[in-house]
Amino acid sequence: MHPEASKKLEVRQAGEALSCTLQVAVQTPAHSALAGLLSYGAPAPLPPGTLVRVPLGTREVLGIVWDTPPPDAAAPAGTPELRPIAGVLADLAPLDAHWRALVAFAARYYQRGLGEVALAALPAQLRGLGPAQMARRLRRPGSPAPGVETTELIALSEEQESARAQIHSKTGPFLLFGSTGSGKTEVYLRCVQDLLHADPGAQALVMVPEINLTPQLQERFVARFGAGQVVALHSGMTNPQRLKSWLAAHSGQARIVLGTRMAVFASLPALGLIVVDEEHDASYKQQEGARYSARDLAVWRAHACGAKVVLGSATPSLESWHASRPPSADEPEGGRYQRLEMPSRIGAAGSGAAGSGAAGSGAAGSGAATLPRVRRVDMGQQPRRAVLSAPLVAEIAERVARGEQCLLLLNRRGYAPVLHCQDCDWKSDCPHCSAHQVFHKIDRSLRCHHCGYAARVPRACPACGSPDIAPMGRGTEQLEELLAELLQGTHRPDGGPVRIARIDADSTRAAGALQSQLAAVHAGEVDVLVGTQMIAKGHDFRRIGLVAAVQPDGALFSSDFRAPERLFALLMQAAGRAGRDAAWMAAQGRPCEMWVQTHHPTHPVYEALRRHDYAAFAADQLVERRQAAMPPFAFQALLRADARSQEVAQAFLAAAAQAAQRAGLPGTGHVQLYAPVPLVVQRVAGVERAQMLLESASRPALQHFLAAWQPLLHLLRAEPAHKGLVRWLVDVDPLAI
Ligand code: ADP
Ligand code: ZN
Ligand code: ZN
Predict the structure, then answer these.
(1) Among 124, 155, 44, which Cα is nearest to 90's?
(2) Domain containing 458: what range?
(3) Residue 553 class from Cβ within 10 Å (0-12 exposed, 13-18 middle, 19+ buried)?
(4) Boundary of a domain, candidates 599, 626, 653
(5) Confidence (pTM)
(6) Ligand 2 midpoint to CA 475 (Å)
(7) How far is the CA of 438 from the centre of ligand 3 (A)?
(8) 184-197 pLDDT tens trace
(9) 125 vs 440 pLDDT, higher one
């Protein structure tokens, strides 16, 4: 562009006057009271969004020229200490107003510094590049963007066509509520294609919850649109790869960006459509720094820049489900979102799939890609402490002998342990809340995470006196070995011994381990797959006849009110792994099944699962949530404190609550502050952690409160009384309480 401008500015030496004051967003030290906007001098104005190099302390850092605040808020002109900017990355187009608005909103809403959020949203490598290096980087020829050419299309089913037509003609936001295997991805592909055809410059952003799912999706998009159009953005890429993708999106050369939650901040000047697949997934919530929800930001971003947004799921979050409620007598408008339903699996009778690719031809009945039948094993009727029931073991053995694969799901992680009596079914309820007290191993206490009530762990069951009380959800660690023992006499159709594999966080630590393990399952080299959440999501296994949840009950009695919602989503996902190849399943001559081992066979979660009835489950949960005034009928935030001791952490939280009361913050009357409690995982690496819950029926009231509280918290932290505090943070719309 302007080779002169990209040279390092030597303003002082030239004796030139710093006639302009620029507001520049820089990454200030984490959690300083600075918002991250600093004033610098420059000889001439620069458009907002321009990337610059500026001095910060003794370093030189990347900054973004920001919009000038209104005159009364601006720093007085001619401040003596005003330092000059050090350089301009003039070859890069400025980040546009939509991008800046997104960043400013995210910083405000999630209570973080503007500079921190803005700089974290850029690829790391950009931070190290000077103007000259950037100019060189941009001179490298990119691959020319070919026109949109699409491969031959499969005909959409009636349900898919209807969803696509509505996305085309209405404004949204849309919630695409489609069963597993209903062809949601095909709808995304078609909507992207409609957009790219209608507008030759438009861009689309497609988000998935996990890195593991991006290669699969990327393959489908590349097959449809060609490699030149599609780039990926996720944390599994190297810094140079990320910079390359980012630049392609920023320049408009890449038309489609596929990525994980971080991609919501990609610079996309011609953004026309955002897709959030598996929108209910907790991975969309960032758990450090600015704790943003990429799904919620996607909805905000689309609205602000006039793009469409499609949230897709077979088991939507209750927030999105509630937001998409249909019009009623009380509410003729209905919710803010437009709900689109695709209840049928592709190939099932009623889906109306007309394409040649649909599994609808062939032998009679082979097209019925139906969801598995759900069977519950009442563990109350099994020997005490049995981990695997005899009928389940027999079923696995029989299916393996016939050449089928079985999937055993463990979900022991991520749930707060509740104490349970093995004899009379007593559970550690909180006497003050409709919640269970959580078992804290470290000081052998029981604590309610809602109201803070604490008690010592009893020696024996308070109800029946049995000494057999233990945290729920244990005993699955040795499952793989136990299974091998129980299936010793089982053989595959070829006479070989049964092959068992385990996929979880431990088994997949090495790079590429997960991919090779999944490949082994796809290749039929595994008969029984044991695993956690990881194996339930997205994978298109073809030979699975049986899915079993071994010990799912723990989640029913978790202190986390979202645990049943997560359990239901997980079990529905897992069920969706069975019988994906309808023709093969039909040839087996017996239906695919999902088994649930439970002490509570009639629990509403399992009743709804049996009927594959998400809507009934959601309706039930929403009644409970409304009664208990919990999200989506209330809005929450957490104040977290980490310290050398639990007392110091909790003292900070208590002082923060007092400070708010004394100052009479705006919104105080509408925001409820609860007592400080230790986190479920209370101590990490010698640091004690505590939190305090804030709740309000009004989102704006909570927002006003938090914004006014922030400066008080900075002051408080500086007081000598809180010297032992390691850090504090605010989590808005937390996912785990
Ligand atoms: P979901 O994302 O809803 O789980 P997918 O989009 O992955 O479902 O579709 C499931 C399977 O059905 C895939 O193998 C896909 O290629 C196939 N499929 C999707 N739509 C159609 C269609 N209209 N005709 C034939 N096959 C289809
Ligand atoms: Zn008991
Ligand atoms: Zn309580």
Answers:
(1) 44
(2) 418-472
(3) buried
(4) 626
(5) 0.86
(6) 19
(7) 10
(8) 999 999 999 999 99
(9) 125
